[in-house]
Design goal:
elongated, 66 residues, Helix Hairpins, 3 helices
Amino acid sequence: MKANEVREMSTDEMHRKVLDLKEELFNLRFQHGISQLENPQRMKQIRRDVARLKTIMRNVELETED
């Protein structure tokens, strides 16, 4: 997910996306625990996407406070 794509989303869409990604990350961790994870790099990518979303959400929040 690119930062430009995230900036085009509304705040509600960003919140929903974060929740979806966290749920997916939970499922991947579970699969990793029972050695059924096919793509371990996906966990890294999801963590980065969550961080990117949260960073942009915080930036938007700070811009609206001014």
